[in-house]
Amino acid sequence: MAPQPHTVRWGIMATGWIAEMFVKDLLTNPAARHVQDVAHKLVAVASSTSKDSAASFLTKVKAPEGVTTYGSYAELVADPDVDIVYVATPHSHHFQNTMLALEAGKNVLCEKAFTVTAAQAKKLVETARSKKLFLMEAVWTRYFPLAYCTIASPNKKKEAPKTVAAINKYATGADEMTNIILQFPKHKSMGIAMTCLRIPTDTDGHNSSGPAIKIQGPLGEIQVMGPAFKPLQYRVIKKDSAGKVEIVDCPIPQDRERDWGHGMFWEADECARCLRDGKKESSTLPWEESIVIMEIMEEALKQGGVDYPELITTDVYDAKSPLNTGKR
Ligand SMILES: NC(=O)c1ccc[n+]([C@@H]2O[C@H](COP(=O)([O-])OP(=O)(O)OC[C@H]3O[C@@H](n4cnc5c(N)ncnc54)[C@H](OP(=O)(O)O)[C@@H]3O)[C@@H](O)[C@H]2O)c1
Which run of H or E residues covers position 55? Predict the structure, then answer.
């Protein structure tokens, strides 16, 4: 008889857009993506708005019977049936919400951006370490098979870059368009990242404007086709290839029965494997890297002159913060 998969019991904090995408993926059959060793069970959902919102969410995702609904995040993290909490609130809330879960003894997968400041990210990591809990930033594309082929190099010591950034702001002061140059002096390499709320990288949705990501080196170029947040194809153009382009498609497997497959299940599988193996952090996205990402973000915001209020930048945990109690 085949060994039983290791099943992880999930509690979902918040009922917005990304929570819906993630939970629909959690509910897909792992066999549809050829995964046999781990499985996922949705046990509870919490909305800071009301228990009714949590119930409507379950209807939207076509959840099976028996999932508990809560009208507060505090109740969710106290649920003994929950192994891991998925924090799907706005990033302004991540520090307080993740601390709420960690303080209650729960493992956490926290949406990106991980936090608002690097100090907050460090505090989350310190708390997870001292409480011997699993903690991971939900950089879902890191776990795409495509990323394994092209970008991620697990276990390799990465160099923290120097950062130069410029930001255009709305009249409200919110960051609208950001360009960042990253310099890796030891590796003699550089990266340029551009993002904008109003201008898409893939103008017509058919990659007519070229690749969303280019990785260039002396031996050639890898092009990752858009959209950058959910790439499904990459191309390899070797130096002296005489115009030959190797095209590799990496489609996201669909669960035909649920008519769904967004690609977030791979990060959930990683969490389940880490919990099964007693790992507290993912080797594909170690804590140190999430902290470096936040240091870069913080530096870019500083150089771009973006200021956030104390309520969301504080690294002092407060279970009764409005970010935890849902007072709007
Ligand atoms: N991985 C990805 O590709 C990806 C994509 C999009 C977004 N994200 C990240 O996921 C997080 C959530 O994004 P989203 O698009 O799901 O946002 P959203 O649709 O606005 O949902 C956020 C949810 O957070 C809860 N919430 C608690 N306090 C809130 C407040 N003061 N204002 C608004 N919402 C509040 C609400 O749920 P309740 O009322 O049920 O508590 C709300 O539905 C963000 O950090 C975002 O950066 C990641």
Answer: helix 51-60
Q: What distance in Å separates the CA atoms of residue 298 and residue 251, rounded to the nearest whole number? A: 34
Residue 76 host element (H or E):
helix 73-77
Q: Residue 327 above 80 pLDDT?
A: no
Determine if ligand 1 sits within 6 Å of the CB of residue 268. Answer: no
Q: List, for residues 170-189, the tens digit of each pLDDT value.
A: 988 889 999 999 999 999 99
Q: Whose CA is nearest to atom 35 of ligand 1?
A: 89
Please report the atom of ligand 1 found closest to the CA of residue 91: 45
Cis bond upstream, residue 227 (ω within 30): yes
Q: Which of 304, 265, 318 is nearest to 120 (CA)?
A: 318
Q: Can you list the domains of the chain with their CATH numbers?
A: 6-145+260-325 (3.40.50.720), 148-249 (3.30.360.10)
87 Cα to the center of ligand 1, angstroms: 9
Q: What is the mean pLDDT of residues 38-51?
A: 98
- Residue 161 has what pLDDT? 96
Average pLDDT, integer, range 149-154: 61
Of ligand 1's listed atoms, the one at least distance from the Cα of 229 is: 3
